[in-house]
Each structure stands twice: as structure tokens, then as C-alpha cells.
Amino acid sequence: MQVLLVASEVFPYSRTGGLADVMAALPEALVRLGLDVTVLSPWWQSLNGTPREVWRPSVARGGRLMPGDLRVGQIDEAGVKYLFLGTPEFDRPGLYAEDDVERFSRWGRQVLPTLSSMGLTFDLIHGHDWGAGLILAHARQLGLKSVYTVHNLQYQGRWNIQDGMAWSGLPESAREGVEFFGDINLMKAGLVFSDHVTTVSPTYAHEITTPEYGERLEGVLQERQAQGALSGILNGLDLERWNPATDPDIHRMTSLSGKAANIAALRHEFSLDSAPILSAVTRLVSQKGIDLLVEALHEVTQDWNVVVLGSGDPLLEAALTGWAQHPRVRYVSGMNEALAHRLYAGSDAFAMPSRFEPCGLSQMIAMRYGTLPVVRETGGLVDSVPPEVGFRFAGATAADLTRALRTARASFENIHDWKARTQRGMVLDFSWEASARQYLDVYERVLG
After folding, report:
1. What share of the chain is helix, strand, coil (3-state, %, to 5)?
2. Where residue 306 sits, what CATH number does that domain have?
3. DSSP label of 448
4. 280: containing domain
5. Residues in domain Starch synthase catalytic (predicted)?
6. 414 and 441 share a domain?
7. How many domains is the chain built from?
8. Which residues touch 293 (CB under 8 Å, ≥6 apart)?
9. Do 373 and 314 sit in the same domain of this protein?
């Protein structure tokens, strides 16, 4: 089976979050199941690594493109072919920007004609999140089978319908499948035109069919559910990248051996006192509920040292910067891969007070590194954090989070309970094999 996976980012070539991590691990897991897998992503100017250029048009195409405006580069890694399609819109520093709907629309309309010009064909196209949605609309026009995965329904790729239809290259007959309250919606395109929709945990698959979590697309999702074309498949974890026994950024850990050394190193790095360490590695956005943690810090710091790594909302950044003057609070702005590893290994507990969480990988990493998650009961957090390991709470309030952290602190004082929870968490199986087999089942159903 020849499968093309399409996404806006893929680790280690481009990354802003969990989508890139999935696009690094899932393709390799599918290859191990015997599939022929190609991953396609934009050729960002800031792409890590230099792809080998394998195709460039010699003539103008579509009445607009001049020679050299399109180029395709390739990197082969672990049995997976990574293709990067370059268009002028992506030839500038950074990744996402305010004109992304236009950029991904113009890029998306070039994908299938470019692959066809290269002589590349696939049995199935698997698009991921809104950046790939338009491609599945074009695939439907060509009679190609497709699967669409929602990683986060909140980010949809919307713009006014007049501009959007012009950029998309879609026929007017496809308008109903992409129009959304007067806008074009690239997420809706993927939901409507794919043969099957998946999302990244079973609980989130249910949640997004409700008004509370459906982001005004719950009607479309209810229809796909009624068709038997909506599934929830829990993401796996890259067990080689996140292996405490071989991780070069930490003191190596086998079972609980080495955990104390990592805690001591983190305590020294941030000049923390003897209280247990609670950390968070996160985007500072409303979804992640870090404002609840900030609101609760007056009480939380009575029991915990708190270290937060992340960036995003300027108001949250400012609040955390102010709190960093407190002897038990530390805040590091931005993304720092090595520090993230040290936080997972050197913390006692890990906070994820998310308002919603499609899947989440941080809680899986934390447990694998002997750190107990404190999580809200939503989405993939429900599906991956057993109550006999982590500490779960229902309400999206600072008071609920505070109560859960008090329970966690009481467990911490009971050395036998804490150790048992930690050991159970470290041996949970979050490998990609089971998830990849579920995707393969979906592919086979779609292909008949």
C-alpha cells in the first residue's frame, strides 16, 4: 500500500508542536507494518536540513507559475521518503503567519498536479489538520481516496469565501463543502471531502460532536459519525526519542534508578528549595489552562516549587515573568528541547490543566520519565492517564486544580503510594505500534 501523509510540519525538519512529533513517529510505525510511506510538507525557508532537489518544472504551469517557482526536495530517513514542496509563499523566515490561509490554499492546489507531473501516484492520501484540508477537496475531485486526521479542531484555517475560493482553485460545485458562516474553512474541507475522519483520542472523537467542543463544526462531525466515518485513535509516543535510559540530555534512568539525580540537578539548576517540583512544558494559550495555574500560584507555592517552560499569550508571559520573582516560581520563555527533557526527568509532578486536550504527548512523556501528571479529565488525558497513576480533576477552575495538587502532595508524603504510582506510570505502553495498526485498519476499510 502506497500512502501519502501531508502535514504543515514534521520533526525534525520543522516544528511548533505535537503535530510535527506525530509526523515523525507515525510514518516510521506504518513502514514497520509493511506500507510504502511518503510524507509531504511545505519547503519552509527555515527548514532544518537541506533536501536533495528532485524536481523543478521547466515550463510555466497553470498560466501563473514561472520556471523555478515550484521545487521539490527529498530526504530519505528510516524507510520513509520526505518530500518538501516549495512555492514562493513559503520562501521567507519563520513558519506560520497571518496570511496562512492564502499560503496553504495556493500551496495545496499545487500538490496533486506536482506529484502527477513527477509520475508519483498513491493508493491513499492521509491529510493532517487544516493545512492539508484543501488537498483532500482536490483529491475528491480526482476520485482519490483519503483519510483526514483532526489534531486540534480549534485551528481551522478561515478566510472570507470570495478570496478563499479564488485561491483554492476549486470548482463552484465544491463551495458548499468548504463554506462556513461566510468564510472558506480548510478544516471543514478535510472533514467533508475525506472518506474517513479520525482524531487523536477516543474521548476527543466523542467530545467534538458536542456543542461544547465542536467549534461550530459539531453538525458536520455528527453527520460523519452517523456515516460510521469518525474514529478516535490515541497518538503514540516516539519511544526512541523519549527514552530515559538513553536520553543524552538527562542523567540516564532505568526504572526509578537515576530519578533522584535528575531531581537534584534540576533543583540546583534553578536554585530551588527542598519542596517537590511541579513543572509544565506548554504553549501559553487558553486551551492549555495555564491561566488556572497562574491564578492558583498563591496556594500552590505553599506546597510546590513551580517551573514553567513555554511562550504564547503575552499576558500569560507577563504574569509568569512577574511570578518568577517568587522564590518558588521559575519561568523560561520560548522552546528549549534540552530543557524540556530535563524538566520531564527532574520534576516530581507535571501540570496539564487543559480546557480541552485532543491527545497530548507531555503527560505520556512525564509518566515515562517517572513524573506524575496532574491533569484535567478531558480528551486524550482521560485516555492516557490512569487514576491509579496520575491525579485527575473535572472542572476547569483554579480551585479544582488546587485540590488535585493537594491530593498529589498528600500522595508525595506517602512514599509507598508515590513510588507505586510512579512505577506503574513508567511501564505503560505508549508505543506507536497499536495506533499504527488502527490507522492501517482505517486505510483498508477506505480502500475496500
Report:
1. 40, 20, 40
2. 3.40.50.2000
3. -
4. 259-426
5. 2-223
6. no
7. 2
8. 280, 300, 306, 308, 351, 353, 398, 401
9. yes
Across 118-223, the runs of DSSP E, i.e. the strands, are 124-128, 146-150, 158-160, 179-180, 183-185, 196-199
Same domain, 408 and 441: no
Q: Is 243 contained in some domain?
A: no
Using CA atoms, how far residue 66 sits from 69, 120, 279, 409, 438, in Å, is: 6, 22, 51, 64, 43
Pair 213, 332 in one domain: no
Distance between CA atoms of residues 372 and 51, nearest Å: 40
Which residues define the annotated binding site?
15
Contact 412, 366 (CB under 8 A): no
- Output the nine-digit C-alpha cell for 323: 511570578
251 part of a folded domain: no
Give the separation between CA 180 and CA 103, rounded to whole angstroms: 19
Locate 222 and state its grid cell: 455528527
* Alpha-carbon span 207 to 412, nearest angstrom: 32
* Same domain assignment for residues 134 and 112: yes
Q: From CA 87, how far away is CA 91, in angstroms rounded?
A: 7
Each of the 448 residues of the chain gets a pLDDT tens digit; together they read 999 999 999 999 999 888 999 999 999 999 999 999 999 999 999 999 989 999 987 655 555 544 457 889 999 998 999 999 999 889 899 999 999 999 999 999 999 999 998 999 999 999 999 999 999 999 999 999 999 999 999 999 999 999 999 999 999 999 999 999 999 999 999 999 999 999 999 999 999 999 999 999 999 999 999 999 999 999 999 898 899 999 999 999 988 889 999 999 999 999 999 999 999 999 999 999 999 999 999 999 999 999 999 999 999 999 999 999 999 999 999 989 999 999 999 999 999 999 999 999 999 999 999 999 999 999 999 999 999 999 999 999 999 999 999 999 999 999 999 999 999 999 999 999 999 999 999 999 999 9
Cell of 220: 458536520
Answer yes or no: is 252 within a domain: no
Q: Based on the fold, state whether residues 66 and 182 are members of the same structural domain.
A: yes
Secondary structure element (H or E) that encloses residue 12, with its range: none
Grid cell at residue 249: 540530555
Q: Residues forming the annotated binding site for ADP-alpha-D-glucose?
A: 15
Model confidence pTM above 0.85: yes
> Both 291 and 177 in a single domain?
no
Within this chain, do residues 275 and 418 fall inside the same structural domain, yes or no? yes
Q: Is residue 148 part of a domain?
A: yes
